[in-house]
Amino acid sequence: MAKLYFHYSTMNAGKSTALLQASHNYIERGMQTHLMTARFDNRAGTGQIGSRIGLSAPADTFAPTTNLFDALSLRLKGGPCACVFVDEAQFLTEDQVWQLARAVDDLGLPVMCYGLRVDFRGQLFPGSATLLALADEMREVRTICHCGRKATMVIRQGPDGTPLRDGDQVQIGGNETYVSLCRRHWREAMGDRQPD
């Protein structure tokens, strides 16, 4: 039975690595997969899913206006597909998450989404909020804070390394921009708690 999965975490937890490994497992067994990522996230190159450890694979891209149900219906006309993998799922719109749910229900396609749960302000991304509401299964991909606790939050740093409290929800960046922290240290960085 096909399901909609949401694998979520904070930055630098290995979500893209896990996605690429899962896709490889299908391919190694002679099955075809379909990879997708946000069009404007070109850190690994346009139409590429890349991990920090150097793994990458080509992917179709989606923009906020892409109808994913139509795109996946068209993909199925080209041949069988064992699983769809969506990277940077936090950038999906609410409508697109519903379109993926329709692909699961009506086309019988398993869809595995990988993305951030919250932004640097501790607020849900719209795509993540809808995935939390609709996913059949959710799995946390864990990473750790500098203190050793589980990191569940992320801060965005300015050029001088100071945590930013305001700004656009979406800003593409990596280790130079974002740091994953536990809630306690995120609160300290955001000025909501005094350091010990």
Please supply descriptive tags for the structure shown above.
three-stranded antiparallel beta sheet; six-stranded parallel beta sheet; alpha/beta; 28% helix; 196 residues; Rossmann fold
Structural summary, described in words:
The chain has helices at 15-28, 68-77, 94-107, 126-134, 183-189, and strands spanning 4-9, 33-38, 48-50, 56-58, 60-62, 83-86, 111-116, 137-140, 153-157, 163-164, 178-181. It has 196 residues and is α/β, with parallel strands linked by helices. It has a single domain (4-142), classed as Rossmann fold, CATH 3.40.50.300. The strands form three sheets. It has a six-stranded parallel beta sheet with strand order 5-2-6-7-1-8, with helices on both faces. The model has no long low-confidence stretch (mean pLDDT 88).
Largest sheet: 6 strands, parallel
What is the arithmetic mean of pLDDT? 88
Q: Largest sheet, order of strands side by side?
A: 5-2-6-7-1-8
Shape: elongated
- Please identify, by name, the CATH architecture: 3-Layer(aba) Sandwich
CATH-level-4 superfamily name: P-loop containing nucleotide triphosphate hydrolases
Count of strand segments: 11
Q: Spans of 5+ residues with little confidence (pLDDT < 50)?
A: none
